[in-house]
Amino acid sequence: MTQGGLIARARNPFWLAPMAGITDVCFRRLMDEMQAGVLISELVSAKGLFFNSEKTKKMMRIHKNPGTIVGIQLFGESAEDIVNAVNIVEETGADFVDINMGCPVKKVIKKGCGAALMRDPAYLETFLSTIKKGIRLPLTVKMRTGWNENELTIHECVEAAYQSGCEWVAIHGRTRAQGYEGKADWDLIAEVKHRAKLPIIGNGDIRSAAQAKKRLQETGVDAVMIGRGALRNPWIFKECADVPVERASLELLTHYLNGLLENYDLRSTLIMLRKFSSWLVFGYPGASKFRKSMFECNTADEVMQQAENFFSHVAKLPVPAFEDNEEFMMGGHG
Ligand SMILES: Cc1cc2nc3c(=O)[nH]c(=O)nc-3n(C[C@H](O)[C@H](O)[C@H](O)COP(=O)(O)O)c2cc1C
With pLDDT > 90 as the criterion, what percentage of the chain qualifies? Predict the structure, then answer.
């Protein structure tokens, strides 16, 4: 049932979802400190690695002594490209390789990668089996429910992943055609879990720790993955793990900034810090004004000054909820 047993090494069943431009070494380290059960990099191009791009390598950097297992997510046109890339992935100290089969973005689909792989489960089995045979690291996959509502190939694709020896399948409960519209189909995720012979990880629209626990219990999935919910509430994994939380936004920002400065130049640090602070203020009065002010900040110090002002004003207010019907970051690579 558990194939090679990788899942037994997860700290808990509340995992961080991979997010392009976000789940880099700094964000993953922070989420590790927040007790996330498993950490996964953003999608990395196998071809990019093959050509030895420094930027691509940087996306895979892993912090020292992680408290749980860390995976590197790859996408690629051919199984051979991925097998070749895994040689470089191994040098990072990653615990497993995850294949992206959920990306709906045209540029990726056109090459037959991402969600396009779900259109032909028989080919998928060959593709994944070739990778599995060619690498030493454990293999996992992340997919959607299918190409569109008429092509819900999830059951067949999960079986293909099982037959190829994958450790688990993470499912974002939307079709490729849906993008980020509508709601993630947790009934279908539960049905897949019921039939599957390998661990199933459910994903989509989890916005609070209470919801995460409810999904886990109601669907019987082996773990849940949280993406955007962790941007709005970086403490969510501690809440899931019932660890007491003190929401000190400014301290958190300072800590994140220090991590950025260790890893990036000032320009990249500024860009990432602005993004992170904008997520933290969502839902509070004055948040949109704050977000606009970020564009006028030219240094990290200026961002921190704005943040200090902002959080001193909202300190006494209740923490804003991330509402179910609220649209937030309606696009991504999976
Ligand atoms: C900005 C952004 C970037 C994303 N990048 C990736 C990615 O690189 N690989 C991937 O498998 N999924 C990616 N996703 C999809 C998420 O992992 C997740 O499946 C999706 O956001 C639904 O979960 P959520 O509602 O908890 O956010 C991305 C999502 C967002 C919002």
Answer: 85
Ligand 1 atom nearest to CA at 334: 12
Nearest residue by C-alpha to atom 11 in ligand 1? 334
Q: What is the pTM of this model?
A: 0.96
**CA 131 to centroid of ligand 1, rounded, Å:** 23
> In the chain, which ranges are continuous DSSP H helix?
25-33, 46-50, 54-59, 79-91, 106-109, 121-134, 154-163, 186-195, 209-219, 228-232, 236-240, 249-263, 266-281, 287-294, 300-314
Is residue 103 annotated as a catalytic residue, yes or no? Answer: yes
User: Residue 320: inside a domain, yes or no?
Assistant: no
Assess if residue 175 is contained within a domain.
yes
Q: How far is the CA of 270 from the centre of ligand 1 (A)?
A: 23
CATH of the domain at 185: 3.20.20.70
The finding on whether 332 has its CB within 6 A of some atom of ligand 1 is yes
